[in-house]
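Box 3.1 A note on notation
Throughout this textbook, protein chains are presented in two layers. The first layer is the amino acid sequence; the second is a token string describing backbone geometry. Keep the layers aligned when reading.
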Amino acid sequence: MTVLVTGGAGFIGSNFVIDWLAERSEPVINLDKLTYAGNLENLAELRGDPRYVFIRGDIGERPFIERLLRKHTPRAVINFAAESHVDRSIHGPGDFIQTNIVGAFNLLECVRAHFSAMDETARSRFRFLHVSTDEVYGSLDANAPAFSETHRYQPNSPYSASKAASDHLVRAYHHTYGLPVLTTHCSNNYGPCQFPEKLIPLIIVNALAGKHLPIYGDGMQIRDWLYVSDHCAAIRRVLDAGTPGETYNIGGWSEKPNLDIVHAIVDLLDEWRPRADGQSYGEQIAHVADRPGHDRRYAIDAGKIERELSWRPAETFASGLRKTVRWYLDHPDWLANVQSGAYRDWLEKNYVDMDR
């Protein structure tokens, strides 16, 4: 018995792999293409663990994925593999179409063949879990109800449109071919090992470097914030007990404007790592032009997963943010390697024996 995790060297994927092996003995095959956000330093603590195998590869390489599935015969596939940064999708949407749509299609085709070749017992326990985003639902007005699983799709960026397309493919493979799929839609994740292009690590990094803390527009864009370990626990729960063909929203019950997030980080840094001049890091806040098509509000109604699968987040936003800021302060080498690009050397130095 083993599970295959795709995109397991990224932020959420690497946290999932580490949490999985901390909670369970079942081995993990970690497949990642290692694009700019794939960082094997995130998984350094698993080096030498016999339950863990890393494989460098692309979900778009169909013959390779077919061989991998035949060799390792996973009883579940958890698909994190995706391009996920909205700003990057605006400036270069092609990679998002290729990975999030074409790659997802290739992976589904390979998994469908793998599933069809299983005996009845193996088929009954097999699952394909597709990790998606709340951004496929579009933007909410200030007083509108939070996104439920039945909210219509209204993606507003190339990123969210590409994820919406992959969601539709996953749904179609269940209804057309009987593939036992599960889809999750998460809200904004934060926590250790997040690439510093996203809001929370970017603010931490820029504050410590004495740079401006950029805030789009008025900073009142609202997001629901989910600590990454809570997200990982929810995915494990959906994999264990979710109903094939169903969708589950995963949220943190923590709606906050971006400006409030920045001020909360500033308060922690002022307490734990005060500026040498005695001034607050708040002096570095700078409002910049809003990005094109910026969604105003996302909010997740996570009631279904609570009612049906008895899951709720363990962290409040305050407790999760404290853990997050502390992690970045305690891991300056990780930050330095990401900022310099030195993390890319980790592969050559430490993974010469990759299973390929």
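The chain has a mean pLDDT of 93. Residues 83 and 96 are 6 Å apart (CA to CA).
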